[in-house]
From TrEMBL:
Binding site for ATP: N197, K198, K199, E200
Domain (Carbohydrate kinase PfkB) ranges: 9-304
Keyword Coiled coil tagged: no
Protein name per Swiss-Prot or TrEMBL: Bifunctional protein HldE
Pfam families reported in the protein's UniProt record: CTP_transf_like, PfkB
SUPFAM superfamilies: Nucleotidylyl transferase, Ribokinase-like
Organism lineage: Bacteria, Pseudomonadati, Campylobacterota, Epsilonproteobacteria, Campylobacterales
Active-site feature positions: D265
Native species: Arcobacter aquimarinus
EC number: 2.7.1.167, 2.7.7.70
Protein family: In the N-terminal section; belongs to the carbohydrate kinase PfkB family.
């Protein structure tokens, strides 16, 4: 994948809300009524609706502005605080009296949602609020690479306001991407693209999408009626269908699907971010598929960072070995994420001078102890101190590259010190693996790891013996 280095300026306009969660357990039924009694142990709140699009853009590294309308209430203050935490200004949020800021509360008992209750206003915003949005947009339009309209049907993106926003954007050659709502998409006419899922597209077009022919017909219908530059439909586990000059289906790249909550927000945010990095729409959709593959592997409305997306793509394709060789700083970030995701991290180290079958089998066993195997490799200077001035035979870059090409090895890190203690402190492995010759000895880093595993070497396989055989062969010749 091309590295995306730009930080595009993206404006989000739409329905902001708070997703509120009450987490607890249930051990009994109420004596007052046949309902569960939930003992709430934890409470959390996150940005929802258009706010989840903002979260995704922030995670990718975009510069984000938001325009929306909220009530004059405590929920609005809570919403501002959540925006402030991700360094997104709330200065463009318009307060409308007698309006309730949307808050959706979910009661979760033993990981099961048992109740949801909403407090919100869903009436159209006032004409005064609409005018303020348009005035703000006209003043700042030139600074944006693109605009995302995140429509959750809560009254912000009224028909007239939406049409005017699109008109202003087109006049200034700014792409409008829309996450649509409802069955009538006429108000989105003139947008760059819409991102409906299959069910939404069927409702909007009255076309039963059951095969490629009907899919093309639905895409053509959307493109024509909404005057889109690009027509696309998200197809869940089957990827994203795009109609520009011809039909293309970009397949999904999700390995494990735990939760599809918020995946649509990730898709539209990722497409806008990729387009802001000068990718073509086809490349942008491939990027969005990768991002969606990351988030559906997480629980709840989630986001994907660039590092996670690159790492995910790498894990799918086992990309070039060089990409699996990391610096201390890079491995520290990766290890932290693996711990956060509940992955079991395994660490081992060595010189690995002339790689042989014994090394490969040792590393395969090491990998079997967890999810991610990180291998520390002694730098050339370190090997000389341990093995003498004639070693290593292969330099550190060659040794690291060969190790990184092995299927069992996820990451390789070169360390200059005589021991890998500082590296182990950064990785904080669950399992530390060493050779069986360390039986009864102190192992560097075992005070940091949760457990130590000793692996017996394959008899007759050693780098020293290999070198001796080579030298004896040269002497006899």
């Amino acid at each position: 994948m091309i590295k995306l280095n730009k930080k595009p300026n993206i404006l989000v306009i739409g329905d902001l809300m708070i997703d509120h969660y009450l987490w607890g357990s249930c051990d009994r039924i109420s004596p007052e009524a046949p309902v569960q009694v939930v003992n709430v142990k934890k409470e959390s709140s996150v940005l929802g609706g258009a706010g989840n699009v903002i979260n995704n853009l922030f995670a990718l590294g975009a510069n984000v502005d938001v325009i929306s309308v909220m009530g004059d209430d405590t929920v609005a203050n809570e919403l501002k605080d959540l925006l402030e935490k991700i360094e997104v200004s709330s200065s463009n949020l318009i307060v409308e009296k007698n309006r309730k800021t949307s808050k959706k509360s979910r009661l979760i008992a033993s990981q099961q949602q048992v109740l949801r209750y909403d407090m919100e206003s869903i009436d159209d915003i006032s004409e005064e609020s609409s005018n303020k949005i348009l005035e703000n947009l006209k003043v700042n339009i030139k600074k944006y690479n693109s605009i995302i309209l995140s429509d959750y049907g809560k009254g912000v993106l009224t028909t007239n306001l939406t049409k005017e926003i699109i008109k202003i954007a087109n006049k200034n050659n700014i792409k409008i991407l829309v996450d649509p709502k409802g069955k009538d998409y006429s108000k989105y006419k003139g947008s760059y693209t819409l991102t409906p899922n299959k069910k939404e597209a069927m409702e909007a077009t009255n076309i039963n999408i059951k095969d490629e022919k009907s899919l093309i017909k639905a895409l053509e219908d959307l493109k024509q009626k909404c005057d889109l530059e690009v027509s696309l439909i998200t197809l869940s586990e089957n990827g994203i269908a795009i109609l520009k000059d011809e039909l293309t289906i970009k397949p999904t790249v999700a390995r494990e699907v735990y939760d599809v909550t918020g995946a649509g927000d990730t898709v539209i945010a990722s497409i806008a971010f990729a387009l802001g990095n000068d990718l073509s729409i086809e490349e942008a959709i491939s990027f969005a598929n990768l991002a969606a593959g990351v988030v559906v592997g997480k629980i709840g409305s989630a986001t994907a960072s660039l590092d996670e997306i690159y790492e995910y793509e790498s894990s799918l394709h086992k990309s070039s070995s060089t990409s699996h060789i990391k610096t201390f700083q890079e491995i520290e970030k990766l290890a932290y994420k693996f711990h956060e995701l509940g992955k079991k991290v395994v660490f081992t180290n060595g010189c690995f001078d002339i790689l042989h079958a014994g090394h490969v089998k040792y590393l395969e066993v090491a990998k079997s102890y967890g999810d991610v195997l990180i291998v520390g490799v002694n730098a050339d200077s370190s090997v000389r101190k341990l093995k003498g001035p004639t070693r290593p035979i292969n330099n550190q870059d060659d040794r690291a590259y060969i190790l990184a090409s092995l299927e069992s090895v996820d990451y390789v890190v070169i360390f200059e010190e005589e021991t890998p203690y500082e590296l182990i402190k950064l990785v904080k492995p669950h399992t530390l693996v060493k050779g069986g010759d360390y039986e009864g000895k102190d192992v560097v880093g075992q005070d940091i790891a949760n457990e130590l595993k000793l692996v017996q070497f394959v008899d007759g396989k050693s780098t020293t013996n290999t070198i001796k055989r080579i030298q004896n062969s040269e002497t006899s010749n």
